[in-house]
Amino acid sequence: KILIIGACGQIGSELTFKLREIYGHDNVIASDISYSNLEVVNSGLFEIVDAQNYASVKVCVEKYNIDTIYLMAAMLSATGEKFPMKAWDLNMESLFHVLNLARAKFVKHIFWPSSIAVFGPTTPKNYTPQYTVMEPTTVYGITKQVGERWCEYYHNKYGVDVRSLRYPGIISWKTLPGGGTTDYAVEIYHKAITDGHYNCFLAEDTELPMMFMDDAIKATVDIMQASNDAIKIRSSYNLSAISFTPKQVAESIKKHIPDFSIQYQPDYRQEIANSWPKNINDSYARQDWKWKHAFNLEDITNEMLFQLDKKYHPTKIESK
Ligand code: VAH
């Protein structure tokens, strides 16, 4: 049985639906700290679990005889800069609880997401290697860097089967943006449909690594289904698809909505984005467990605008 912690979130919600498709509806238990995503809550087995409370997680693990946990609860980069100690507590306590449950043999497998936020201003920004200087300047990035160290430690010292991916910015339409710096690339599509205009909080030439949700979900399923000896990196794998700037995504939107307009008003999140790489070398993931992405920027724009147009204008007759 599979437990998803943080199932109401951007990745957790889509992971819930995908894993139910693959492993069977009643073999996947969704959980979160609150009923914040009713589509997830009302779609199948759901439990309130406080990821910062060991007993809360353990009770759910024992109730359903869980053998695999996907820990998708975390406070992201932008929000983490507003509440540093809350970000540290949530991101670290939740990780220790699931690692200790695995060490004590209550569960067998763990997936834990890292992020390109582990890289900092001193990291090479182009084709950022798997092994390189990492001096993250956000609390979120610090929690991901030290979390990777603990995952590798628990694997080497206690044989815990924990697997991890350094996600880039992830673009999806099913949930609203949740406090990430890369979330401008989600907001822009919503605004293109609802307002025809977007005030972008990053400068037009801010290139960042990005990925469509379907690719991120595929990578997560692929790494967890790979044979144990295929996984040679137990900190976290670099994972990449595409990279683009706000200007490039605005141009791709204009091909569908010619009147779409954008203005750039960088805020505190510009400094966060400036500390991250422009693009990522994920050759180890491609070589060890055959990763490859599918969605390019045009595909993402097509799908985002199509789905959001339906979401915001449900009664609109499909234009021929
Ligand atoms: C954030 N979306 O912006 C997350 C992600 C690489 C960025 O970790 O904080």
UniProtKB/TrEMBL annotation:
Any Pfam family: Epimerase
Origin superkingdom: Bacteria
Start and end residues of each NAD-dependent epimerase/dehydratase domain: 2-229
SUPFAM superfamilies: NAD(P)-binding Rossmann-fold domains
Family membership: Belongs to the NAD(P)-dependent epimerase/dehydratase family.
Protein name (database record): NAD-dependent epimerase/dehydratase family protein
Organism, scientific name: Mariniflexile aquimaris
